Amino acid sequence: MKFHYKCTTCGQEYHSDSVMYLCPKCEQTNEPDLPPKGVLKVIYDYQNISIDFDQLWQKEFLPLLPINSLESLPNLRIGKTPMYLIDRLEGQDLNFDLYLKDDSQNPTFSFKDRASAVVSAFAREHGIDTIVAASTGNAGSSLAGIAAAQGQNAIIYVPASAPKAKLTQILMYGAELHTVDGNYDMAFDLSIEATRKHGWYNRNTAFNPLTIEGKKTVSFEIFHDLRSVPDKIFVPVGDGVIISGVYKGYEDMLRLGIIDRMPVIVAVQAQGSSNLINNVYHNAFEFTPSHTIADSISVDIPRNFYMARDFLCKYNGEITSVSDEQILKSSKILARNTGIFAEPAAAAAFAGFLNFWEQNQIPVNSVNIVLSTGSGLKDLEAVQGII
To answer: What is the CATH number of domain 83-110+211-386?
Structure first.
């Protein structure tokens, strides 16, 4: 067996390469309006894995992916996105290295394609032809596009308030679209109900453990491009899955002895949707309704809270929040200084970096990465007021 699952809550291990979602034991203890316990982590036989990181491209990832063949992946260029060195901002020379990892260059223009590709490949290897997902827009359009490339059926639940461009993508790819008169959390619950009723394979983040395995590939690529571990990586955070994926990639490399230290990963949330970082150092939860222009990271309940918190605490991660005004301003600064137009959720990570820079928290000669997760063309309405 290539891999097994380990519960991040109780530590129970499950030796199965079939479909699994949450830990069956811990799932029974979950309470409404709280982050779910029992999120599973994929564990490999690290002692018997040998990877040549001199040629670290997707074909080298296979030993660390939960699929058996590269032929199961869609015939699209997913990952291998560019990483740009930025040496000047607003007319000022930088005395540190700043790189922008631009994942808007994926097929559906967002980071989410990494997860969709692995979930789709796993489904293909197990004879599954229908995949369902809840989304604020990007995960849904990603799954719809990847499923179209694979000849699979995609069923997407999204809030009716999702940006029109993302809804248009979903429909153009031929997916079955269900708009929900509510928020992401309601769409999530409805997709789980549909999974149980119809037996569809579910892509939801913080539910399907394979999504993190797809998202972690960005860490391999950053290591490949730098040939070293950066000092800080700024990551936009909603439910905590992307940041967990970034951590998982570096943790895999740490366990393999490829690296000898972890980067400091900075969790950046919108102030109007900061339930993860607000609770990361507390035992009693206080979740408030989210209100932010950054729809892709707007969640009331951070469903991957426990795993993200464990990673942040174990590896001394850092946290910051940014206002909607800062997000829009940073999107404009990024576009006018680099030629990269990022959607609000992606610009949030850059706004977090700007916070650190303005507060002199970026050391001289340090190496810093900003993860840009989606194209600004996905949400043109958001930036109309600053043009």
So the answer is: 3.40.50.1100
